[in-house]
Amino acid sequence: MSQGTLYANFRIRTAVPRSLVRYLKLDVQILDPVKEEAQLARDFPWKKVPAFKAKNFKLTEAMAINYYLINLSQDEKFKKQMLGATIEEQAQVIRWESFANSDYLMEMAKVFQPLQGVLPYNKKSVDAAWANVETMSAILEERLTHHTYLATEQLSLADLVSCACITRGFDFLFGKEWRAQHPAIVRWFNTVRDSEILKEEYKEFKFIEKMIELPKKEKKEQPKKAEKKPAEKPAETAAPQQEKKPKHPLEALGRSTFVLDEWKRKYSNEDTRPVALPWFWEHYNPEEYSLWKVEYKYNDELTMTFMSNNLVGGFFNRLSASTKYMFGSLVVYGENNNNGIIGAVMLRGQDHVPAFDVAPDWESYSYSKLDPSKEEDKEFVNNMWAWDKPVVVNGESKEIADGKVLK
Questions:
Q1: pLDDT tens readout for residues 234-248
Q2: In this predicted structure, what is the pLDDT of residue 283?
Q3: CA 194 – CA 286 distance, rounded (Å)
Q4: Which residue from 144, 254, 319, 394 could staple onto 184, CB 3.0 to 4.6 Å apart?
Q5: Among 189, 93, 173, 175, which Cα is nearest to 141's?
Q6: Residue 302 falls in which region: left (phi positive, over 0), alpha (psi -120 to 50) or beta
Q7: What is the dihedral of CA 15, 18, 24, 28, to 10 degrees?
């Protein structure tokens, strides 16, 4: 007796239910929802896939369908492996499935779909989504650095679903450089996709070399008009040539006497306290540059210190348009589930907004102008750039756990 009909196509969420039907040798008919659109519409007017129909029973949503298909198996050991043998394991399976399906895949789509031209491109929205992808990738990398699989110590439904979801990242976003930075995720992905359950789905899979780029708009050719010889004008009445608009607002300030690149080389190559910092204060010009205390506004939401440091790294990456006018450092102080982000940044001019607002998440930080003529402000800059003293927060010393330098 037929166990039902599964509507599933090329979409990534249908890969796991298709694979389960094949692997478990279930008596389930798999129909292409495009070719069988009329039948799909009769059974499921919403036409959402995957969809499953049995006698007097209908089911939508991939996670629910996967659960049902696994329970059609007579192999109790396999069911416990896939769904979890204890309530704790079962909860972890659901947790990682939900993370991949509802959060990770959704944020990846917010990046690659605008780059594909499927959705309108908005730089701030794409950059914000990419920051979320990087944060979630750090969570996965941390877990998979210390464990072979996600939910338990063996392959489970959590791995199958997460592998299918992250495939879109490897299709469009995760190039060679990204993979080198996330070796644990790549190792896990290769292990899961090569499993007996999924390997049929990945026979033609190939990694990309680099992230998909924003498509260039094609210029429409305008019909040529008959050329008219312009009337000669006296030299004194010719319109003055229009000056080019500065590429960055801070470019209008012109060159400074303080050579920022020279300071960056000094900081990178010399001992910070005994050599670099004295050189900085000797050459720093407060009329050309200003110093700012930068603090993350939502420290109470931070958890793992490595994730906080990734947050800083993402912020600095999104400041790339302004780095030729800036230098600074943000540190992560404290410990896991009790940490914060603070630092000191020098920038061209006296207004912080033109330098920082190139990053879509710049308003997640507060900015306080420092006065280097005050010894306490000068010492704060020294400490933030030297990383050799604890951060004092509300009178309590907090050790520096990590940090990033913007240069």
A1: 555 444 555 455 577
A2: 93
A3: 59
A4: 144
A5: 189
A6: beta
A7: 160
